[in-house]
Specification:
nucleotide-binding; Quaternary amine transport ATP-binding protein; ABC_transporter-like_ATP-bd; membrane; cell inner membrane; CBS-domain; 350 residues; alpha/beta; 2 domains; four-stranded antiparallel β-sheet
């Protein structure tokens, strides 16, 4: 049940985000074409031959245990690790055709250890890439102010040093620094892994909001199933250097590709499916309603919340309201009983 309680509101936000496609030119933000990586003296590749396309503006979580190859896959995008074979394209361009420094200026990078320069102020840390890009002082100062507001840090923090900030505040600065050059792609390697649960949940929600506002393409590595489900438009599941499945959270829960995926995400747990589905999906239109209505929920609330309300209510049904607070439908136990028969139908709000 801990899985469910940590995800309720953010999963509703995920359901409301539209699924992303390629851009108008039909290009992808990142393309892996038969990419592999074998480290010196290693008996097996860290990443076996992998082909994968990442759409512009998508939020992709890469999920796997330690040693699964997820971080190696991520670090090949900005050439921290050079591929042993295959080709990677960023916005249609082969990454080996660019000088490494130029490539990395186009891609934001955030890690768990944060990596802020301790001798620099918050403003100086955020301004690192804009200075390299030759921006003038006025433009840099405006950009710093804009980003501090975006990551919810007070303007007066610009003159503080990293040692004067909490872990969560430092991570916010790290995100701001990664975005300072207005890179359209961000790579994030377990950035919230060292934070306490409350701070971590808050930053996850803020990152979802940032991605929705700015439409960045984000690759986010995590070993945490809750985090992967909460953040990702789609999830890449890796094991022993191979992709096991690539799909939306609901697809992975309802159609796991193999036993490894099924066990990893606890796919047989119907309560997880309830958390990933919206009330509007199973409601009976209000004109067909009969019987007593107890509590009410909103169309974008999860079916898990509906079940909770039904169990707490004296009524036979839960009312469903739209964003204008109008009663538009009802859900009772009868609707939840037929869940498995309708679970593969598309969610219209995506």
């Amino acid at each position: 049940m801990a899985f469910l309680s940590r995800q309720r509101q953010a999963l509703c936000a995920w359901q409301g985000r539209q699924r992303k496609g390629t851009n108008a030119m039909g290009e992808y933000a990142i393309e892996f074409e038969q990419v592999s990586k074998t480290f010196p003296h290693a008996a097996e590749p860290a990443v076996h031959e992998t082909s994968l396309n990442i759409a512009e503006g998508s939020f992709i979580t890469i999920l796997g245990a330690s040693g699964s190859g997820k971080t190696t896959l991520l670090k090949m995008v900005n050439r921290i690790h050079e591929p042993t074979s295959g080709r990677i394209r960023v916005q249609g361009q082969d990454i080996t055709s660019l000088p490494v420094k130029n490539l990395r200026r186009k891609i934001g990078y955030v890690i768990q250890q944060i990596g802020l320069f301790p001798h620099m102020t918050v403003e100086q840390n955020i301004a690192t890439v804009p200075k390299i890009l030759g921006w003038n002082a006025g433009k840099i100062r405006e950009r710093v102010a804009e980003l501090l507001e975006l990551v919810h840090l007070p303007a007066e923090f610009r003159d503080r040093y990293p040692r004067q900030l909490s872990g969560g505040q430092q991570q916010r600065v790290g995100i701001a620094r990664a975005m300072a050059g207005d890179a359209s792609i961000m790579l994030m390697d377990e950035p919230f892994g060292a934070l306490d649960a409350i701070t971590r949940a808050s930053l996850q929600d803020e990152l979802i909001d940032i991605q929705r506002k700015l439409n960045k393409t984000i690759l986010f590595v995590t070993h945490d199933i809750d985090e992967a489900m909460k953040l990702g438009d789609q999830i890449v599941i890796m094991n022993e250097g191979r992709i096991q499945q690539y799909g939306t959270p609901l697809e992975i829960l309802t159609e796991p590709a193999n036993d490894f995926v099924r066990q990893l995400v606890h796919a047989d747990d119907v309560f997880q499916r309830l958390e990933l589905m919206e009330a509007q999906r199973m409601m009976v239109p209000v004109r067909q309603a009969s019987g007593e209505i107890g509590h009410t929920v909103y169309t974008t609330d999860s079916l898990k919340k509906v079940l909770s309300c039904l169990l707490q209510s004296d009524g036979e049904q839960v009312g469903v309201r739209n964003e204008d607070d109008e009663l538009v439908g009802t859900i009772g136990f009868e609707q939840l009983k037929v869940l498995d028969g309708r679970i593969h139908e598309p969610i219209e709000s995506r």
